Amino acid sequence: MTGNNQHDYSRLCIHTITTRPWAFEKAAVSFAKAGVRGISVWRDALQGREIAEVRRLLESLQLDIVSLCRGGFFPSTDPKRRSAAIDDNLKAIDEAASLGAPLVVLVCGSAPDQSLAESRKQIKDGIAACLGHAKSAKVRLAIEPLHPMYAAERSAINTLEQANDMAESLNSPWVGIALDVYHVWWDPDLEKEIMRCGRSGNLAAFHICDWKSPMLDMLNDRGLMGEGCINIRQISNWVDNAGFSGFREVEIFSTSYWQQDQEKFLEKIKLAYLEHI
Length: 277
Ligand code: ZN
Known about the structure:
Bound molecules: zinc ion
Order of helices and strands: EHEHEHEHEHEHHEHEHH
Number of domains: 1
CATH topology: TIM Barrel
Structural class: alpha/beta
CATH superfamily: Divalent-metal-dependent TIM barrel enzymes
CATH class: Alpha Beta
Largest sheet: 8 strands, parallel, barrel
Helix content: 40-55%
Number of strands: 8
Number of helices: 10
Strand content: 15-25%
Low-confidence stretches: none
């Protein structure tokens, strides 16, 4: 059995949304004090703050800034909204560059009043329209395949195979893939597609949490690692075997955990990380 050495948090990253009740500064200081080494910043955490100051704080805490979440939402039947989405993604790239985040995670989007194929085409066009800016800002865009239950509104990219196809066809060092166990754990082709993703150099980020059964809410009832039915260690080993050596990012949206003491939740995250990865 592989796993972490005791107390090895060198690859542990936490998303700011995971401890949403905490103000950004409180989250950053608490993560650093707990020995967490990486942080992924959600754009809402930047609201009303000077990005340069946020960056200084994170650097002074010696936290690695892993990614900015999130861009995307490209598809729409309305061309004005598609163009506004591209503008917003260009802005996200600028924010990531100011923050010192090497990656913007994309929730690619979907429009229920058009076909998935059309939404996928608009996603590809939208990403392509941002690539020049991504390159000059040296910020990579990561396509995150989302579970098929979100296909109508949140993403028309629903399997790692589709994400691999799109990343490979865009064929740019500024495009990669964010793999989230929550979205892909059920996929019979997962191991094969993770290896493919690694071979093509597209594996850019790895998100962890668990899938609870029963699940009370499609969005905000994610489990802590070990609380659900995902074999996280197996997927994590596949990801490592595919050549990925980056952070394992804890991304949990949970109304239930958000109502609890966040200090205790952070301790639970650390224990679950050691036990289940
Ligand atoms: Zn994710």
